[in-house]
Amino acid sequence: MDELIREILARPEAGGEVTVRGWLRTARHAKKVSFLEVFDGSCMAGIQAVAGPECARFEDEVRGLGTGCAVEAVGELVDSPGQGQRFELHAREVRLVGGVDDDYPLQKKRHGFEFLRTIAHLRPRTNTLGAVLRVRDAASRAIDDFFHERGFVQLHSPVITLSDAEGAGDMFRVSTLDPSNPPRDDQGAVDYKQDFFEAPSYLTVSGQLEAEIGALALSRVYTFGPTFRAENSNTSRHLAEFWMVEPEVAFCEIEGLADLAEDFLKSVFRQVGEKCEDDLAFFDARIDDSVLSTLEHVIEQPFERITYTEAVEILEASGRKFEFPVSWGADLQSEHERFLTEEHFGKPLIVTGYPKGIKAFYMYCNDDDQTVAAMDVLVPRIGEIIGGSQREHRLDVLKRRIADQGLPEEEYWWYLDLRRFGSVPHAGFGLGFERLVQFMTGMANIRDVIPFPRVPGNASF
RNA sequence: UCCCCGGUAGCUCAGCUGGUAGAGCAUGCGGCUGUUAACCGCCUUGUCGUAGGUUCAAGUCCUACCCGGGGAGCCA
User: Fold this and answer.
1) How do beta strands A87-98 and A47-51 pair?
2) A386 has which bridge partners?
3) Sheet containing A201-203: which strands, arranged edge to edge?
4) Band of the pLDDT at A406, cuts 50, 70, 90?
5) What DSSP designation does A365 have?
6) Is the predicted pLDDT of residue A166 greater than 60, yes or no?
7) Strand A426-432 to A201-203 pairing
8) CB under 8 Å, gap of 24 or more: what pairs does A290-293 form?
9) What is the DSSP letter of A106?
10) Which nucleotides of chain B are near protein (any atom < 7 Å from a CB)?
11) Which residues pair with A228 in a beta bridge?
12) Closest nt to A35 (CA→C1')?
């Protein structure tokens, strides 16, 4: 395969023949020379192919090229006499590989993101979406690298599950039964015994419980895969299908988990910052001018750590009028989280020790019997980006909490078994991958940081 | 799901207190001795989201619905 534009632009010096294949971002035709801005998606920058009358098919083909055309250009790589680029390609030959009809919807001018979502098959060719997808890829790689460097094993958790074990939100049903005429049992209820899995089945809302199985055998595991929520959430921070990262660590308590979360974010930001310098500079210039300073903040500054109780005290002492009142025992609202991370501390913040009444049954109950070893990482602009906890590993306490919350103990038989057979303290967290990409790029809407967003009422493409 | 805002040309938008629709860009054509989201000239483009209603007259006012955006809840 030929060099990508990214590789050509990284050459130490000009010289030699190169071949560039890609799409035209724009074509500028002057009297005797055409400037073709070719990009191939390998980096933010394109390469300028310069074609004059000596170029093959100049009059009959090159002069008619326009935005969107797929081309192959062959010629010499030379130092550019013009401003704005180091090298350019003096084309000996330009070949039209694929033309465009004149209703090609992408212009060189800026489009609204709303419109671009309606042409999701073409939007990766825009500067912004191209940069998003490269940053997304770099972040994905950085996550895998981070965990593997620390001895984690990636666990492939199932996408289809039988029960809503965590109690986290509405689930999508998976079935092969005929929806218009399902088989019925004696009571007239739908007979899932005849369904594919012989039981009601759903798309996963979390790989956490499976990750706990992995951690209690392999010590350190993480899952990284698609997750589904059938909730009618219409916000710029929610998707019905999103990717979640869930590490789970044996012999780890809440402080160790907070350390892991902080190291994790710092490491991923550092690696993406190194790999995607141009893309992040683009986001800083065109999308949100706090992108680069945020990157630096996350990497350089230690995260603030406070308890839920301290958070409530700070909020109460702030003198700020909140829409939702602050009181010990109530969950922190978005406005509270944003005040703390954006205004009070001005940097990422780790909050631990939430009241047990507002958190899930599997979280480790602290000695005060009032709070659990839960942990949220809050960041400016996004709010909660990571949520996690030390897990309750004591069988008797876990059974009591399941009973307290009115959950059916028999459905958690294997989860309880893990507490009967060599139980150890363990902890883990979940990170919404798209929220991380949003945080890194400054993109306002989560639908623009995933190639094919699924939201209520829309799963096009 | 709730609250607020919006839907006008392919795109981005303007259109005041109702008087039969406009600009830039894109497309097409022509020009320009190297351009940088090039520039200059000419041309084309509309069931003004949908359905009703008020009025001599509705893009403009009213009602309902659909779609989108922002915020909230839920959460990741």
Assistant:
1) parallel
2) A377, A431
3) A160-161, A201-203, A173-174
4) confident
5) B
6) no
7) unpaired
8) A290/A380, A290/A381, A290/A442, A291/A440, A291/A441, A291/A442
9) -
10) 1-2, 10-13, 24-28, 31-39, 67-76
11) A241
12) B35
CA A102, C1' B11: Å apart? 13
A67 half-sphere exposure, CB direction, 13 A CA radius: 13
Count of alpha carbons within 13 Å of A78, Cβ hemisphere only?
Answer: 13
Rounded to whole angstroms, the distance from the CA of residue A285 to the C1' of nucleotide B60 is 38
Cβ pair A309, A328 in contact under 8 A: yes
Query: How many Å is the maximal CA-CA distance in chain A?
Result: 84
User: From CA A205, how far away is CA A398, in angstroms rounded?
Assistant: 21
Closest CA to A294 of A348, A335, A343, A340: A348
- Residue A110's pLDDT is 80
How far is A433 from A223, CA to CA, in rounded Å? 12
Mean pLDDT of A119-147: 95
CA of A179, C1' of B67: distance in angstroms = 28
Render pLDDT for A209-243 as a digit per residue (tens, 0 to 9): 999 999 999 999 999 999 999 988 888 999 999 99
Torsion of CA A166, A170, A174, A179, to 10 degrees: 150
Sorting pLDDT into bands at 50, 70 and 90, what band is A1? Answer: confident
Point out the nucleotide closest to A31 (alpha carbon to C1′).
B32
Residue A222: which of A239, A245, A241, A205 has the closest Cα? A245
Q: What is the mean pLDDT of residues A350-378?
A: 94
Reported residue count of chain A is 461
Q: Residue A34, SS3? A: strand
> In this structure, what token pair is assigned to residue A164?
């809503």
CB A403 within 8 A of CB A416: no
Please name the residue that has the structure tokens 């709070």: A371
- In angstroms, the CA of A323 and the C1' of B63 are apart by 33
User: Which residue bears the tokens 């409530």?
Assistant: A312
Backbone angles phi, psi at A51, to 5 degrees: -120, 130
Where are the alpha helices (H) located in A64-207, listed in sequence order? 113-118, 127-149
**Between vectors from CA A383 to CA A367 and to CA A142, what angle results, nearest 5°?**
95
pTM of the predicted protein model:
0.94
Report which DSSP code applies to A166.
Answer: T
- The percent helix, strand, coil of chain A (3-state, each to 5) is 35, 25, 40
